[in-house]
Amino acid sequence: MAKKVTRRAKVGRHIRRAKAGALPDFVPPQLTALTDTAPEGGEWAHELKWDGYRMHARIDGRDVRLLTRTGLDWTDKYPAIAGALGALPVRQAYLDGELCALSEAGLTSFSAMQAATDARSSDGLVLVLFDLLFLDGEDLTGAPLRVRKERLAALLANAPPGLQYSEHHVVSGASFHRHACKLGIEGIVSKRLDCPYKPGDRGLWRKVKCLNREEFVVVGWTDPEGSRPHLGALLLAYYAPDGRLVYAGRAGTGMNTERLRRLREALEPLAATKMPLDVAPPKCSRFGSPLVLSRVHWVRPKMVIEVTYLTWTDDNLLRHVVFDGVREDKPARAVVRPIPHPGKAPAANEREHAPRSRLA
Asked: CA dist 27 to 2, 254, 346, 356, Å?
């Protein structure tokens, strides 16, 4: 699919706008803005959107750490990935990527990622790396993405298993998006090649989706019916800009018996004496069975899950929702309704409410 970044760049080469600096303890990640069309032009690089856990890798000699998007140290959860990072030919480095479970076809599976995390087995996982912020005494955050990617590609040219470079393509954004959708990819991320790394920014990186997959806060669960064990469905919500929790619908499929058991065990300690929503869910919906509020077990809004869904209904509820997994790396207060901005990034005063991404 057209031009790729070259891997001939030398890792030790001087970079314009790079500067000497100390290895940071943690760098807040640069984020993405959800848009409905991919940008066009030679200044934009397009990458596949990976579905996993956003993860930073900090290497300082023998000290290797895997840090979540909020700075939590998850190194002990993924020892195989930490070992692969420790084998890279660097003294110090700080890298940005996505920890994924990849199928033989190269597609990511968040549910497989969740299962591996639950089993504390990282042997089959891959850390897909797409940015390099610091390398052996050089702070690269001020360098253009084009140059950071060249350095990253060179560093990963002979990377051990468990590490993978995220290729980018300078082509038509629309055609790249169409191709990704045909492959069954969740979407793409487009990034400005000429810009520095800006922690927290949601304007220079943009995502366009193929699948409707998002995160929601669990606010309650229903009793199981028939032969189904442990629990029936999860009640979902998101935060409005004014801080209210807004009901979004139910997720009742995509959970096997073991997952139902784990969810019930995790939710019981979060039991709440009153409903956390400002407005009660509707008792009836055009596309779902009636909801009996007396059979709902409310919980404190702490658990975040990822789901795939068909669409939003006219009454602002999710339709055909499938559970994908629990997002332990995402704080509940960061979950907002994913509304794409038409063909552009959100304005500065909108960015704090923009949604997350798989590669974001």
From this structure: 32, 35, 23, 17
Task: Please state the pTM of the whole predicted model.
Answer: 0.75
Encoding tokens for residue 192?
A: 């400005």
What distance in Å separates the CA atoms of residue 99 and residue 52, rounded to the nearest whole number? 5
Distance CA 160, CA 165 (A): 11
Work out the angle at residue 95's Cα, subtended by the Cα atoms of residues 89 and 101, and round it to the nearest 5 degrees.
100
Instruction: Look at residue 321 and tell me whether its pLDDT is greater than 50.
Output: yes
Find the mean pLDDT for residues 56-75: 96
- DSSP-derived 3-state class of residue 176: helix
Q: Pick from 187, 161, 179, 164: which is nearest to 32 by CA? A: 187
Question: Does the pLDDT of residue 290 top 80, yes or no?
Answer: no
Amino acid at 356: R
Whole-number pLDDT of residue 118:
81
C-alpha dihedral (225, 226, 230, 231), degrees to nearest 10:
-20
Q: Which residues of 35-45 are buried (b: 16+ CB within 10 A; e: fewer)?
A: bebbbeeeebb
48-77 mean pLDDT: 95
Q: Quick one: which of 85, 61, 65 has its CA closest to 75?
A: 65
DSSP annotation of 29: P
Collect all residues with Cβ–Cβ distance below 8 Å to 162 and sequence separation of at least 6. 80, 81, 83, 84, 122, 125, 126, 127
Residue 231: predicted pLDDT:
94
* Contact yes or no for 274/178 (Cβ under 8 A): no
Task: Select which of 3, 4, 10, 49 is catalytic.
Answer: 49
Please name which of 312, 358, 31 lies closest in space to residue 210, comparing C-alpha atoms.
358
Rounded to the nearest integer, the mean pLDDT of the chain is 87
Least confident piece of the model among 35-44, 110-119, 123-132, 274-283: 110-119
Active site residue 49: yes
